[in-house]
Amino acid sequence: MSPSVPETLADHARRVRATTLRELFARDPDRASALALHWGDWRVDFAKERLAPASLEALLRHAEAAGVAHWTRALFTGERINLSEQRPVLHTALRQPDDASVSVDGADVLPEIRATQRRMQALSAAIRSGVRKGATGAPIGAVVNIGIGGSDLGPRLVCDALADAARPGPQVAFVSNVDPEHMSRALAPFRPESTLFIVTSKTFTTQETLANAKAARSWLAAGLGPSVDVGPHFVGVTANVPAARAFGIAPHDVLPMWDWVGGRYSLWSAVGLPIAIARSYDTFASLLAGAAAMDAHFRTAPARENLPLVLGLVGWWNARWLGYPQRVVVPYAHALGRLPAFLQQLSLESNGKSVSRDGAPLDGPGAPSLWGEVGTDGQHAFFQWLHQGTHPVPVEFVVPLRARHPLANQQTLLVANALAQAQALLAGRPAEALRAELAGTGLAGAVLEAAVAARVCPGNRPSTTILLPTLDAWNLGALLALYEHRTFVEGLLLTVNSFDQWGVELGKTLATPLIAALGDGAALPAETDASTAALVAHARQVMASGD
Length: 547
Ligand code: F6P
Fold this sequence. Notes:
Blueprint: H1 4-17, H2 21-27, H3 31-34, E1 36-39, E2 42-45, H4 53-65, H5 68-76, E3 103-104, E4 107-108, H6 110-129, E5 142-146, H7 153-162, E6 171-175, H8 180-187, E7 195-200, H9 207-224, E8 234-238, H10 241-247, E9 254-256, H11 273-279, H12 281-300, H13 307-321, E10 326-331, H14 339-351, E11 369-372, H15 383-388, E12 395-402, H16 410-427, H17 431-439, H18 445-455, E13 463-470, H19 473-494, H20 503-520, H21 530-544
Parallel strand pairs: 5-6, 5-7, 7-8, 8-9, 10-11, 10-12, 12-13
Antiparallel strand pairs: 1-2, 2-13, 3-4
The protein binds 6-O-phosphono-beta-D-fructofuranose.
């Protein structure tokens, strides 16, 4: 990073801080078009972000200096950009539309990808058509995906988003949590003879997933009888084929993953099998095609028109230069209810780091936290805080415009609400107009001033609005790829390695002795802090005493 660039951006940030969005709009009649991007029928409006067109130009220059184009080439061509694990990062190869070779260690990965896709296609068709049978000969009618993190969030989001009651298929459920309640609730409507479990785990060592897989095996054995081979009720998706085989999954029912696919980027691999089962392989292929179209855009569009690049820059600008420590994502689509959870893993596991790729501390704030909820529900919960709270945060509105299942004028209400919220964050509700309005009702003096103060919305709160035509598989694939690449760009600007997650390991390691202490009364390691030891002792006592 050249020393003069941060100064330039700092100057831009100072200028922007000294003005308001309302002033920026008043000064520049072209702002709405200058700060909007188009991609097919999509319109991405970031005119309500706190930046001037000149700040965007400075950000684009910074992206060039930071080598974003170089890293993007390296991503797509399979260079080992996951430096701490010395791995390439090739989720884009999984949705590549052609068979152009992508080589890892001298071997082309495309043939293996295509072979796995053919197996997904055959398996999903066999399940959907009732050809795949359980141990007693009953056709499979329910599928439970057991997995957590990237082995759950992506396929669960997509299955939820594309669910269509009018097109029946096998019921598909997801169990991620080690909390026994999750598994028992999921299994309640299903019968063992017609239920198939997909055990999805890149490592096949994840504690929660293995515990749930064992619980599934016990449930099957209890329902079908101990002498029945429950093998036909399991499919595995993993990069650790020997461990899946050791669990008892037949070789022809284990679909591969590869080291070069990160868990949170894996829905495009066989991890997406539940999508093909729930909706059809063609739907899954359409999802891949939408993502591939976004990949092509990211690779080839000029910087100024490049959606992931510009959104990544704006996100980094907000966090690093304007100091917003959070980011809120509000999909105005009930079907995208799982989007915030998916983005939490994508953004926070990727970029929630304090050191750069070479181990040096970051030179400023890192990635913002991320949370959200669907609109309009969120409007009746936390939007009060967004409009009048003391911690302004940037908001992203994700708005598919056409309803898949229209009901009267409800889609109009939905879209209008999204646009109105973005407008309200920008414009706020100034005191002067309120004072005039309330004075007209007879209020005066201190009572009037208190009433005005309670109602003022400061505005000047930034937002981006992403309008997409509808929420079909193609557009959803493009949306998720947009967020993946945006996260990649943000990571490059932050200078972190977006593809490792060492922070997750500590909790996993510390849980092992606590499991022994809580479960069997084993002694805690000597270095256990007094607070944790007291909590373990209390929990053990209460857990042992029953209801
Ligand atoms: O939470 C850490 C993590 O390693 C994620 O990165 C990953 O998606 C998840 O656990 C599940 O891992 P696996 O697919 O190996 O079970």
